[in-house]
Backbone:
């Protein structure tokens, strides 16, 4: 189904998104401020930040929908508009529904496909991939948010593109749909494609992305891998024992922090679960529970941005606030 | 229609085909076209019937019965003009424009394709409507002995030219829509220019308006509706050419804005 071209790109073609000093100002408001980043192929890269951080504006500049005030952004080595077959290079899902409500899903896709000579067969294929076969003849105005999102993803897949840019793809999807999109994104990246996905949910990114580009107020805050981010985060081990006080004494040492929120339960930082288990066994201490606990990536995110005090409060509010409302 | 051998790339012809799919796949297109055809032909029936009654009463009509049968053209801004406007603003009002311009990031091919497809569809529908209007009108007037044949001097030019005028009015709506990007504003602007402006001009002292009234877009375009030269109007083709010139100017503004503005 996938043409060879995608899997074995020409050596000279750089399958990546590169932004250099990308800036967008609306009057005296700066939406995107001197963003420089590279999105590499073969992985899902998350584009993370609270609502209003400039993610959508950045994506619109990548696609040439908005003109940058300064800086530039290229896709696969060129400006998006300079490609002979743009839909072949980049498939995009935009945040706002970019569909005429009066047109059926199939006609919408046919019209987009026609511009670049994409076949009718491919239109039916993407309709099937996105699970819209039964509703393809219906006017898109009657679609639920989730179906609209699937239609947007179908449009993004039309050109079988080397690069996919998706703005908040899980918005409005039901749990089954969210699961589907996660696997779709991972599958597309595994095929060697560049997959760039924006989200305001760190928890969502933790499940799909390998790399995250974090922005706040239009500025780049971090460009790190999820692994690095997790490594930076706080680890602790929860231990439940009838001899908690004795265990606490055994484990105490340099670099070890032990807290107890409730009788018989310790939270230990600075030691891993294995060490604690062995120590307990060596001292004949019974353990009822031994649980390694990683701080959530939301916490890691805040840890990462803690120096940016002014920003932190807004980021934290944005993350958790939006997270709750979405679920 | 596309074979495996066809290279996948953007071409103006393909964008035009895409615009045809867009136009034909909206119910509003067919509704608006039906309303356009029904009003154009309906007015021909109505006015020709009234005129036929006058003819039997012994009134002389000259060639004006041709214009009467084509009188529906005066409502064009509200019918085919609305359709043209919707073809442009519908994309902005729904957000479709972002999908269209993502597919065609060079942008201008979308505008050319919209204009081209609309010109072709608009011309075919308009010519059908005016020839049916003329045919029915003359059949009604013929019973009263006041029918005029297409073969008489200037008649074919008037009927076919009226079709052109209708199509151009649609293009005018499209071009205005592409500039203002909002349906209500586009329709108001088109109706203002084509229907209100001439009325306001009529209210002003003739000594003022005599200099420019014939150059207004409405008067210029409608010069083609008369078989014989009519005072207060330019020569038929001169008028229509001026009307086309106004449209070209608005298209030029639309093109510049399309290229410059964020979508």
Residues:
């Amino acid at each position: 189904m996938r043409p060879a071209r995608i899997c074995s790109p020409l050596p000279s073609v750089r399958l990546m998104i590169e932004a250099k000093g990308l800036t967008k100002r609306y009057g005296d408001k700066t939406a995107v401020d001197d963003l420089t980043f590279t999105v590499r192929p073969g992985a899902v890269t998350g584009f993370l930040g609270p609502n209003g951080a400039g993610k959508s504006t950045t994506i619109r500049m990548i696609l040439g929908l908005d003109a940058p005030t300064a800086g530039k952004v290229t896709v696969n080595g060129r400006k998006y508009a300079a490609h002979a077959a743009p839909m072949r290079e980049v498939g995009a899902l935009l945040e706002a529904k970019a569909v005429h409500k009066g047109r059926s899903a199939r006609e919408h896709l046919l019209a987009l496909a026609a511009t670049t000579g994409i076949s009718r067969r491919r239109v039916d294929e993407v309709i099937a991939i996105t699970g819209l076969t039964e509703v393809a003849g219906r006017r898109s105005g009657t679609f639920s948010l989730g179906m609209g999102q699937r239609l947007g993803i179908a449009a993004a897949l039309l050109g079988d593109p080397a690069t996919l840019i998706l703005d908040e793809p899980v918005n409005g999807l039901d749990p089954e749909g969210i699961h589907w999109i996660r696997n779709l994104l991972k599958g597309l990246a595994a095929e060697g494609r560049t997959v760039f996905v924006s989200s305001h949910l760190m928890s969502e990114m933790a499940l799909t992305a390998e790399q995250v580009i974090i922005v706040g107020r239009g500025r780049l805050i971090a460009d790190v891998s999820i692994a690095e981010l997790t490594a930076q985060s706080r680890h602790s081990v929860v231990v439940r024992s009838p001899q908690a006080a004795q265990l606490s004494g055994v484990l105490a040492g340099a670099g070890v922090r032990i807290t107890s929120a409730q009788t018989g339960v310790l939270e230990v930082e600075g030691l891993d679960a294995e060490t604690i288990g062995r120590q307990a066994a060596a001292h004949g201490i019974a353990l009822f529970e031994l649980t390694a606990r990683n701080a959530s990536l939301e916490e890691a995110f805040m840890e990462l941005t803690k120096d940016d005090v002014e920003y932190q409060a807004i980021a934290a509010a944005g993350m958790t606030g939006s997270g709750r409302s979405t679920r | 229609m596309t074979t495996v051998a066809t290279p996948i790339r953007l071409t103006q012809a393909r964008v035009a085909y895409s615009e045809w799919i867009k136009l034909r796949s909206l119910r509003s297109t067919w509704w608006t076209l039906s309303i356009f055809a029904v009003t154009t032909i309906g007015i021909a029936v109505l006015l020709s019937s009234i005129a036929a009654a006058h003819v039997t009463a012994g009134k002389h009509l000259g060639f004006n019965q041709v214009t009467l049968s084509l009188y529906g053209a005066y409502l064009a801004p509200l019918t085919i003009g609305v359709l043209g406007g919707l073809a442009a603003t519908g994309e902005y009002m729904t957000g479709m424009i972002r999908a269209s311009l993502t597919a065609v990031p060079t942008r201008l091919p979308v505008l050319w394709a919209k204009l081209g497809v609309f010109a072709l569809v608009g011309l075919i529908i308009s010519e059908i409507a005016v020839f049916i209007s003329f045919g029915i009108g003359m059949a009604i007037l013929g019973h009263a002995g006041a029918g005029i044949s297409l073969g008489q001097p200037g008649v074919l030019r008037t009927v076919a030219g009226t079709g052109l005028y209708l199509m151009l009015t649609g293009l005018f709506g499209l071009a205005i829509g592409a500039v203002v990007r909002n349906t209500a504003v586009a329709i108001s602007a088109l109706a203002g220019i084509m229907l209100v402006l001439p009325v306001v001009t009529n209210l002003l002292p003739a000594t003022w308006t005599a200099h420019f009234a014939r150059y207004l877009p409405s008067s210029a375009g409608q010069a083609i509706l008369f078989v014989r030269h009519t005072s207060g109007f330019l020569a038929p083709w001169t008028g229509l050419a001026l009307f086309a010139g106004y449209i070209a100017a608005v298209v030029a503004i639309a093109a510049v804005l399309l290229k410059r503005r964020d979508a």
Remarks:
- Chain B is about 70% helix and 0% strand.
